[in-house]
Specification:
The protein is of the alpha/beta class. The chain has a single domain, classed as UDP-N-acetylmuramoyl-L-alanine:D-glutamate ligase, CATH 3.40.1190.20. The relative contact order is 0.15.
């Protein structure tokens, strides 16, 4: 396997200028624009929570696309669009063209949370990976798009893959990657991420006690408190926001996002605080502390 080096990030950011220069006016174009796809008839809470957390992280604009089975429940909320649903209430193949049109003015796509694993929705996501000319962040329930043909993610090297170790190991199996166990868990994870990127040369963020970022520019490792490892919706929103804002150098954006995530634990003291409101407050606190620091 190819050798690689990695940098550790702890109490000081590896790229302080990214924090210093972050867009402070959220609605500026520099904040980036993402279209996120999610939801089904029974649930859209995580998809909606992702949008609010991405905006709290500094995303300039977020359009949430839901199946029209939720229209009566959600109504005409700002920043929400509806596309055709399957009879079961999930996003249908008939939604593909509408989603592509919605993303034409966006910087990227993100999917996503609360997506059904049925064949119709899976096929729709697979086609979007093939047809969209926008970079795509893939995480959570959106990983079903890789069920049949994981290699389609590599069609655009600007894509982003966010996953935990269990998901990464499962994906490695689908790709025919075999890794012997290593006595050092961090070394094993770094080897796993490196092996994945040999097959899928996209940016990768591996969530865990060490948040590992791997891109063409290099690898970084940031320790993360367990309470935040249990908040994948928040982590995927923050990572996606900083990734799209630093599209020309995703290592800087993703590593800086990892630093912000690591600092959020200061205001989260127990797992019963992992509500969307508490996570937004912790994120705002971490960003304010960064803004107040003389880098």
């Amino acid at each position: 396997m190819a050798q690689f080096t990695h940098q550790f990030q702890t109490n000081q950011p590896l790229y302080p200028q990214a924090l210093y220069n972050r867009p402070l006016t959220r609605l500026s174009r520099a904040g980036g624009r993402l279209v996120t796809i999610g939801g089904h008839k029974q649930s859209f809470a995580n998809a909606a929570g992702w949008s609010s957390l991405a905006e709290a992280a500094g995303l300039g604009s977020c359009e949430l696309i839901l199946p029209d089975s939720l229209q009566r429940l959600v109504g005409f909320a700002p920043g929400v669009s509806f596309v055709p649903a399957t009879p079961a209430g999930s996003i249908a193949q008939a939604a593909i063209q509408s989603i592509i049109q919605s993303s034409e003015d966006a910087d990227g796509l993100a999917f996503g949370w609360d997506l059904s694993a049925n064949s119709d929705t899976t096929i729709a996501l697979e086609h979007l990976l093939k047809l969209s000319n926008r970079p795509i962040a893939l995480f959570g329930d959106g990983l079903i798009a890789l069920r049949q043909n994981p290699q389609i993610l590599a069609a655009n090297p600007r894509n982003l893959l966010i996953l935990n170790q269990t998901e990464a190991t499962r994906l490695a199996g689908k790709l025919g990657i075999g890794l012997a166990p290593h006595q050092n868990m961090l070394t094993h994870k770094l080897r796993l991420v490196s092996a994945l990127r040999l097959e899928l040369p996209v940016s990768v963020a591996l969530i865990g006690p060490q948040l590992i970022i791997a891109t063409d520019e290099g690898h970084t490792v940031t320790p993360v408190q367990p309470i935040l490892v249990n908040a994948p919706v928040a982590l995927s929103a923050i990572l996606s926001t900083w990734w799209i804002q630093h599209a020309t150098n995703p290592l800087i954006g993703l590593t800086t996002a990892a630093y912000i995530i690591s600092q959020m634990a200061d205001t989260l003291t127990s797992q019963n605080q992992l509500t969307n409101q508490h996570l937004v407050m912790a994120l705002n606190s971490a960003l304010k502390a960064a803004d107040d620091t003389d880098w």
